[in-house]
Amino acid sequence: MKLACVQADVAFGDPAANAAFAAAKIRELGAQGVELTVFPEAFLTGYCVDDADDARRIALPRLGTAAANGQTDAALAAVQRAAEESDVLAVVGFAEIEGDALYNSAVLFEPGRDPRYYRKTHLPELGYDHHVTIGDRLEVLDTRLGRIGILICFDIRPPEAMRVLALQGAELVVLPTNWPEGAQAAAELFGPVRAAESRVWYAACDRVGTENGVTFIGMSQIVTPDGVRLGMLGAEPGVLVADIDLADARRKRVTRVAGKYEHTVFASRRPELYGPLVEPVGDR
């Protein structure tokens, strides 16, 4: 499978401009044989809001619905149309509004299928995430390319989210993200470790530029199930493309030296010891 991460700046509060950029990239990359294109977190809308009113003002409704804030689904429709016409799968992040609730969401467009959505399940105390309702589902999406899980930004920090997706059979986990200055550890460490500990492919797509005083670091990357980066971008706009074989993620037994140095990813687990992982701990 040929996978692309599109690292780009975002026009804050201008979904039409962001959607036009995304649609053009999907068409360009599709012509080059790319089968899945990933864009950053909140790409269609921007992220760095000052208050709840700003958060509500920029949020978009899902396709086929209307929003009381005056926003329409036109930006999502434009990206879906490009994916359909180019026969390319695409994942793009956006600030979502549904009724009175806001969510930090990503949508997967797959030609010939209804859009599928993911809502961020782990929240930092930052920007748009100050004002959203937390997502309540981790699921793997069956696609024509393979089994794909979606996480968003801070979701990569707790180890449980990636592991749950891997236990459900994810072969690739994509992470639309907005890593600001100070989040280098997330880019440098967490992704490769999460990929290696569950043996899944991992693709993180960050944005760049400065938005309302916050500067983003880029460092989009594609990582093998062994935790090895196939490539990583810097802090400038760019596109990272790699050919990946999802079959590598289905091999959960690792043999370094046959009969002498082997291990299993899941069979070696001890779930009976892990009760504290799901016990509430309060604000600490």
Helix content: 10-25%
Sheet with the most strands, sense and barrel status: 6 strands, mixed
Cα-based radius of gyration, to the nearest Å = 18 Å
Q: How many beta-strand runs?
A: 16
Written account of the structure:
- The protein has helices at about 15-30, 50-60, 75-85, 160-165, 185-200, and strands at about 1-5, 35-40, 90-100, 100-110, 115-120, 140, 145-150, 170-175, 200-205, 210, 215, 220-225, 230, 240-245, 255, 260-265.
- Strand 15 and strand 16 form a beta hairpin.
- It is globular and about 65 Å long.
- The strands form 4 sheets. A 6-stranded mixed β-sheet has the order 5-4-3-2-1-14. Strands 6-7-8-9-12-13 form a 6-stranded mixed β-sheet, with helices on one face.
- It has a single domain (about 1-250), classed as Nitrilase/N-carbamoyl-D-aminoacid amidohydrolase (4-Layer Sandwich), CATH 3.60.110.10.
- By secondary structure, the protein is an alpha/beta fold.
Descriptive keywords:
alpha/beta, 284 residues, Nitrilase/N-carbamoyl-D-aminoacid amidohydrolase, six-stranded mixed sheet, globular, single chain
Summarize the helices and strands and which ones pair or pack.
Elements: E1 2-7, H1 15-31, E2 36-38, H2 52-58, H3 74-86, E3 89-98, E4 101-109, E5 116-119, E6 140-142, E7 147-150, H4 159-167, E8 172-176, H5 184-198, E9 201-205, E10 208-211, E11 214-217, E12 221-223, E13 229-232, E14 238-243, E15 253-257, E16 261-264
Parallel strand pairs: 1-2, 2-3, 7-8, 8-9
Antiparallel strand pairs: 1-14, 3-4, 4-5, 6-7, 9-12, 10-11, 12-13, 15-16
Helix pairs in contact: 1-3, 4-5
